[in-house]
């Protein structure tokens, strides 16, 4: 199993010196870009990130005008094409484009059509649902068929992982650690991290990506999870 661990963004109080420090000193080998949900970065910034990030693998969070305003409809396609073009300097390091769906976005036939359209334009589409209708076998089979990556949230939605546990699609697991009792402002207990590691190992993915989105505790929790995996014979 190839293991990738990182955080959602790098501009936090635990980081003394930006992306360069993160890539060299954090101990992580992956990063989610979070600011791209709110604004398009300058291409010059993307070029700089490519140089500074070394061996890091990237997941790029898709802009909210695509996921929340237009909800992946046809009118979102020109914006999507413009968005992807900004990241051309990083493309060989990007494993996913992360589509975080609004909590009101339910799984139905219309949603299937919209996801099918986007999956036909990129093999890097990763969907993080926030509505309970997405957590079932029908959805997983649809994602397998279309080559869409499923993002499993560990969050207050279920006070932890979903009832089905960690979802593996086409050999890949992608987990986002938001916090169990509160969003973002939460420090994971060692036994909770142990649980997540065990659930991932149980489904035996070819690759596992885990990103922490719990702000102040990201660095410590991520490093602890790496230690737990190492104790089980899985290293980054």
UniProtKB/TrEMBL annotation:
Family matches, as InterPro entries: DUF72, UPF0759_sf
Listed Pfam families: DUF72 (PF01904)
Listed name of the protein: DUF72 domain-containing protein
């Amino acid at each position: 199993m190839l293991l990738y661990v990182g955080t959602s963004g790098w501009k936090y109080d635990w980081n003394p010196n930006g992306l360069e420090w993160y890539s060299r000193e954090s101990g992580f080998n992956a990063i989610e870009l979070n600011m791209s949900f709110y604004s398009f970065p300058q291409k010059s910034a993307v070029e700089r990130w490519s140089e500074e990030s070394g061996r890091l693998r990237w997941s790029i969070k898709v802009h909210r005008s695509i996921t929340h305003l237009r909800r992946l409809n046809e009118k979102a396609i020109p914006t999507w094409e413009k968005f992807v073009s900004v990241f051309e300097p990083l493309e060989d390091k990007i494993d996913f484009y992360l589509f975080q769906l609004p909590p009101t976005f339910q799984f139905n036939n219309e949603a299937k059509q919209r996801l099918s359209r986007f999956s036909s334009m990129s093999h890097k589409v990763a969907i993080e649902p926030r509505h309970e209708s997405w957590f079932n076998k029908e959805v997983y089979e649809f994602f397998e068929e279309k080559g869409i990556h499923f993002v499993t949230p560990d969050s207050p939605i279920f006070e932890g992982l979903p009832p089905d546990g960690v979802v593996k699609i086409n050999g890949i697991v992608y987990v986002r650690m938001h916090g169990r009792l509160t969003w973002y402002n939460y420090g994971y207990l060692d036994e909770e991290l142990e649980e997540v590691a065990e659930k991932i190992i149980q489904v035996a993915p070819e690759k596992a990506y885990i990103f922490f989105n719990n702000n102040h505790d990201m660095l410590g929790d991520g490093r602890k999870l790496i230690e737990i995996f190492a104790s089980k014979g899985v290293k980054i």
